[in-house]
Amino acid sequence: MNEQVDQKSPGELSLPGLVDILGNINDAVWSFSWPELVMLFASPATERIYGRPPAAFIEQPDLWRTMMHPDDRHLADRIIEQLQAEGMADLEYRIVRQDETLGWVRDKRRLVYDDQQRPLRVDGSISDITTQKQAHEALRVLAESGNLQEQNVLAFLVGEIAASQGKRHVLIAEIPPGQPDLARTVAVCSDGKLVENFSYHLADTPCRNVVNQGVCFYPRNIRQLFPRDQLLQEMEVESYWGTPLFATTGETIGLLAIIDDRPMAEEPHNTALLKSFAVRAAAELERRHDELQRDLMISALSRSSQEMKRLAEVMAHHLQEPTRRLVTFAQRLRKSFSSDQESRESLTALDFIEYEAWRLRALVNDIQQYLSTEAQPPQAVASDVREVLAAEERRLAPRLAEINGRLEIGELPAAPLDVSRLQKLFSVLLDNAIGHATGHHPLLIRVSGESLPGLLRFKVEDNGPGIALEQRKKVFNLFEKLDSSQAGTGLGLAIARRIVDGQGGWIGIGESELGGTAVIIELPRRDGEG
């Protein structure tokens, strides 16, 4: 940096020296007269942001307003209003650069006053936030990819990364189970096009370092750093960025790599964005692995499953009657006891018998529910979800009142499930939310839904204790209870998953805006539904 220092005032910069410093700052600095807002000064960064030299803004006082996107020009008046009301303004808006490309800026201004507190001028800065906005848009698109099939999601991801980052090659690869030295691509975008997948050995490649060490970034000279990587040599590339893909267990199951023929500059917000893409890619790979394992298991058990199912159904049926009788006769016996000490001890024992009989009855009932929940094609006429939830709200009213709880029901699309299955699905989820309420604050349960292209998405969320990330898959297992002290059989969420799976849908656990658990359900949607 070439600082020009006034020799008469050591340590004090001259105006040319100050301009030189501002020229090395990415944000533009400018100053306006007040209240006319005629530009008095603009730093060199103005040209980097707008594509017009600072002199142009001095010569054309209204140029900053003219270069605002037509749909955002009304914000110029808001800047003036904020300055008048608060003495400062801070707004984001779009601009149309000299080359007619679209950009985003953050405009911050502050009134400067003289010794008598009279407005003197407006000083401010303008920041180019185009890349951040593009990143936010990419994440929005990424969130909307949830309605795509697995392979389409992975292809979508590599294409979106290549486009948003302006890079030549992007690939997602998996590490096949039991083959830690091999990588197999599942989606590759090269020069803006999806290309055929391939397998390659990890030895002597930057991908090996990614798998072993974590995120790796080589901004230049990648071929010189890995001379034995034949693929890099053939591609004639210059830079590389890669991140591992982790399963929920922490195991490395793949990697995401970006490769370009130019030096690559790493920016923190880009890194965060790419890691978000990586999380989504890892989720898709893990789902793929899980489905493969499930298919193998189903194939191995197919010959015996019908017999086992029939046996379980018969057992559940024959256990119902004894448990019903246990409860009935325990209640009859209770009436025959007096109020003496011996009778009170007997009543305590009887309470335990009755409680355990109820538990056994509930368990048998849930087993029957689970076994009876077969895969079922979507019914021709969709059911009204709001009506089902209104009935559930009436059923749960006494329990909610006891804990000062509340159920909020938002706008909900109709669902292609018969009423009985729909009722059972939401009954399980609502009972689960109430059963895990802490009592530290009033319970709030919110049910919402939306109709998206190709699917219906429902969400049941609460402000309860939530579920830890490492436990979110296991809660759908049979007889899984995270807290043994809680009531229930451990079959509720397994029943919910069975219902959703039977429709070809998906159910999972996420974070709730309310601070607790969010159960997300996605069901395939036919044309005309919603």
TrEMBL record:
EC number(s) from the headed UniProt entry: 2.7.13.3
Molecular function in Gene Ontology: phosphorelay sensor kinase activity
Every Histidine kinase domain range: 314-527
Pfam families recorded: GAF (PF01590), HATPase_c (PF02518), PAS_3 (PF08447)
InterPro entries, A to Z: GAF (IPR003018), GAF-like_dom_sf (IPR029016), HATPase_C_sf (IPR036890), HATPase_dom (IPR003594), His_kinase_dom (IPR005467), HisK_dim/P_sf (IPR036097), PAC (IPR001610), PAS (IPR000014)
Positions of the PAC domain: 89-141
Keywords (A to Z) from UniProt: Kinase, Phosphoprotein, Transferase
Reactions the enzyme catalyzes: ATP + protein L-histidine = ADP + protein N-phospho-L-histidine
Domain of life: Bacteria
UniProt name for this protein: histidine kinase
